[in-house]
Amino acid sequence: MGTNLTIGKAINAGLRAAMEHDPKVLMMGEDVGKLGGVFRVTDGLYKDFGADRVIDTPLAESGIVGTAIGMAMRGYRPVVEIQFDGFFFPAANQTFTQLAKMRRRSAGKLAMPVVMRIPYGGGIGAVEHHSESPEAYFQHTAGLRVVTVANPEDAYWMIQQAIRSDDPVIFLEPKRRYYEKTEVDTEASIDEVTPMGAARIARSGTDCTLLAYGPMVKTALQAAEADTEHSIEVVDVRSLAPIDYPTITESVKRTGRLVVAHEATLTGGPGAEIAARVTEECFYHLESPVIRVAAFDTPYPQSRLEEHYLPDLDRVLDGVDRAFAY
Hints:
By secondary structure, the chain is an alpha/beta fold. Helices cover 35% and strands 21% of the residues. Helix 8 crosses helix 12 (313-324). The longest helix is centred in the N-terminal third of the chain and has 15 residues, at 7-21. InterPro entries: THDP-binding, Transketo_C/PFOR_II, Transketolase-like_Pyr-bd, Transketolase_C.
């Protein structure tokens, strides 16, 4: 029997397990300590592990990430929280020019086991800079691993896998799904669960592959259920860098069609790279072009417009219909 947890609570439990397993694991970020984070994801860790391992920082993202790089060079495994996705950019220089390149720069002599937790995506009625989907920036940067979760089971295990990685990991948390609850097998072994870099078949089907990750996986599953005319296979990408192309292309070769859905903007988004790669590897299996369903190429709107901006059930189903129109 498992334990019923929300995604937020599952990440909390995974962080706790990692800190108990390795005394070199520590947390840093704005309000992660006494407050327990704005989404309460680190709630209780300060009380149980103390101020030396759960560290409240100043409002200085570049300082947070820069400090984490130095601590990783000294053998620690820092887990830093960027409070909201749009707050990341002051730390872009530290992340892209230092964190991502340090292991290669040192010819492998320096591990860089830094996990950067970032709540991302929209759907919570927030103000400007609180609802971004910046995953393509990280995915484009060689040296970073980029993962995202769509359910509590993955949240619990993948945060622990990320912390054990000797490469820096961008751990994207879909904030509008934080409070969705399912059963989590907390008694399994970390060596037995699905590897962090592997995609997952969330729903089997035969007519079309619907690819999603993070907050869009639930929408994709709803679309597959709503489409009673076709058998839709839903693939949860889980890892955006590296991408598990063997699982994706195997699915597309079976179904002959691919629709990719994500909250990030259309142009230069993760779906563009996936579409290009699948077209190269599955050209003679495709019955239609790869269809992308994404946010519009505009800045994130005011909260009262976000339900029109974010891809929803109808837009995903329209994408599926376009795939079958050929």
